Amino acid sequence: MEPRGNRRDERGRDAPIFDAAIRFIEEYREGPFYVNVWGHISHFPVSPPPAYAEKFRDVMVKEADFSDHMAEKWSALKSAGADPSERLRRYLGDVFSLDEDVGRLLARLDELGLTENTLVVFSSDHGPAPISDKESDGERADARLNMLGYAGGQRGGKHTMYEGGVRVPLLVRWPGKVPAGRVDERSVISGIDWLPTVCAVAGIKIDSTEFDGEDASAALLGREFARATPLFWKTSNPRGQIAVRSENWKLHLPYRNRGEVELYDLAHDAGERKNLAASRPEVVELLSALAQKWNTTLPTEYIKTDDKQD
Fold it and tell me: How many CA atoms lie within 13 A of 153 on its CB side?
């Protein structure tokens, strides 16, 4: 038996998680199964084995190739005396190890003859995290400088409700059911839609009124999907910031009554740069009322545990 510890040193940090998922699939391949693989990449700390970063040794950062939303990260690296190219190579190496493990899982499905009968969905929980200044010394302080996730032209990231924080990758594979190579830039779906969507794909009848989400299986299967209900966001705090999206309109209410109301037309301004609140007061009024009504349905207090597993 190969020593597990050595393999972890040489492989990406999510490899053991994918090993467990593959073993589960092998065990239950004769019947229906459902598997969630909760990977940690590219969650902090990003610190891949050197061999993975080395794969990107020719990558050189050109700041002009990135949107101005990355300026804060470049500034943090320069203040710390870090080489942006070296740090980006580490980030890319970490992500590559995830690609490698996803590839292993898909290959095993192929080998087991399960590909044609298995829906595979890849997604993320939120957009890229910032370079935190909470780590002051040691390996963790060094690793924070590798947090070079990039949301393209989208504003914000983790901890924000701008599109850079809530718009995430979604890849779907199901040969014969999902059109290969199709790109859907119109459908608006959310994590809250996942359960009713999976039930629909599996032929399980549910009472849709008991779910916040919608059956978005049409989008997954390559058909038109028009969302019928708004999407809402709020941090886990009774006084947390609230945002709402209805069709192509996105409204951000002021955080703790500080700042200003922000309204964006995502169909023409996905980067949320032009605030239309002053010119479209009727939309602000409508979405504000929806957000406040939704907020009344939420808890008035949240339980925080000592280990932060909340």
Answer: 7
Res. 88: pLDDT tops 50? yes
Taking Cα atoms as reference points, which of 270, 20, 33, 41 lies closest to residue 163? 270
**Average pLDDT over every residue of 274-293:** 97
Under the banding of pLDDT at 50, 70 and 90, the label for residue 136 is low
Rounded to an integer, the average pLDDT of 45-72 is 94
Residue 188 · residue 227 · CB < 8 Å: yes
At residue 235, the pLDDT reads: 85
- Give the HSE-up count for residue 125: Cα atoms under 13 Å, Cβ half-sphere: 11
User: From the CA atom positions of the chain, what is the Rg in Å?
Assistant: 22
Contact 97, 15 (CB under 8 A): yes
Mean pLDDT score, 89-100: 96
Residue with tokens 């703790």: 256
Dihedral Cα 272, 273, 279, 281, nearest 10 deg: 30
Q: Is the pLDDT of residue 9 over 60?
A: no
* This prediction's pTM: 0.89
| pLDDT band, residue 4 (cuts 50/70/90) | very low
